[in-house]
Design brief:
This protein is an alpha/beta fold and about 600 residues long. Helices cover about 40% and strands about 15% of the residues. It starts with a strand and ends with a strand.
Length: about 600
Amino acid sequence: MCAIAGILDLPFDSQILDKMLSTMLHRGPDGTGTYMEKQCCLLHSRLAIIDPEGGAQPMSLYWGSEEYVITYNGELYNTSELKSSLIALGHEFITHSDTEVVLHAYAQWKDACVDKLNGIFAFGVWEKRRKRLFLARDRVGVKPLFYTQVAGGLLFSSEIKTLLAYPNVPRELDAEGAAQILLLGPGRKPDSGVFRNILALMPGYCGYYEAGSVRVWQYWKLLDREHRDSFEETAECVRFLVTDAIQRQMVSDVPIGTFLSGGLDSSLITAICSGEMKKRGEVLDTFSVDYENNDRYFTPGKFQPNSDNSYIALMQEKLQSNHHWTVLNPDDLISEMENATIARDLPGMADVDFSLLAFCRKIRQNVKMALSGECADEIFGGYPWFRDPEVRDANGFPWAQNTSQRADFLHPDIKIDPVSFVNDQYMQTISQCDILPNTPAQEKRIKEMVNLNQIWFMQTLLDRKDRMSMACGLEVRVPFCDYRIAEYMYGVPWEYKDYKNKEKGLLRYAMEGILPEDVLWRKKSPYPKTFDPAYFDKVSLLLKELLKRNDAPIYALVNKNALEKLINSEFVWPWYGQLMKVPQTIAYMLQINFWLEHYKIRVV
């Protein structure tokens, strides 16, 4: 993986380029590259996973009467098939990097190339003669791409901090941005970078910048179709798709590992990877995270029914992997609060982000690339809100059933109606779902939930995994995000998905024989968090110190009275998702204040 950036129709010099590149080095510590001409400058910072010797960027290609230059972040999982097709059309290759394949694919098929790519990616291709830039982002949105138009030109980059490194890019937050932070956060609108006038190219979108104008369009979305496979045929197809996605994503010229939580998704990935590596005579590195004193303080709950450790031990014993534990304490989490905020360029998922950042630092000491189990829950219907009729059938985002509670925190000077703002985002997503006519009510609602989760909740988790891992120069791949799985599963009826009334029942049935039964059928448990009361005490103390300040920037967004009551609050619903309760919400507020201060944001 890498960092990419570009400057179009704007002035630049070595000082500007050095400043922008300095914000990219954590994503690509293995080398930098620059392409420059009068109207265009492309930047690249590389984390070398495939073809370390031959994959340097930006990469150029002369084809026909045009010169094409690419800056690319991602991994292509159908490289060999696509390369064979291009060779048959007369293309010649001098490296075995996937970057070169993507570049030739664009030269051959222009914007239609994205339909042929199976992978995770964000890239820009400059057409030198035509003076046109093509931008694209992968279907599911694993890799980020932000852009802004300033002074008649365009800037784009993997992360917001790189845009802000260009001179005079406004660091502003308007009412809508404030509403995103407090009413949707740590989620954000799919096309927004939250900062005023900073946009995100949405997953499954591509477009052109030409003559000062940006035009983008959607090239992929979930399309409904009649499902004609029997249950057994569906399970067989799921087993093939999941296994194939994992095996394809093992491709690497550097050592790899897997995240192992002891849950269904990470355990499946780990078991398949371990089996493939044993065929080569190699042992897989596996990684788990835990917290000091969780054996003493862990309390089962609706969203986190049991601890992971015994299941991790089962997997490690079965696979005989080279296993690594990272054990964190409350001070470790607090120490990453500011780092995690900078990594995301936004307030994030509090200690869920902090712990992942610390965990990734440890993993990076051993491997450069790892596979992780994100997004199976969105695709296979694993979250509680898929199966709880009260939450599932209610209007609104099911992971944040708390708009009135959140509205209490909104400063009265922020002139926006909280209920209307949230409902508008929700209804816009619902209205765009592709669902066959005459679909039964429950099936229709499940498909709406799949779209809501994929477009909103999943993006927050993918942002988290990308930013925390890449802050450490660690590439993380997510096989369940293979678009073929998402496309196929969208049409599968809920009766199949909910086999035995069990979350992800179809996936469990389809993958029988790969995992120990206790792991295969264990109840879902989310990413682990600390239950140590010392963490609550520490973030509460930090909030009390913040409240002593009269000049804290958070007061421009947040009602101070609501902030003062937060420490003694009790939430009916978590602030966001399953894990953000009062301690995490306190940490989120601390992140907001640090973010406003560190980025010198002006509230307008």
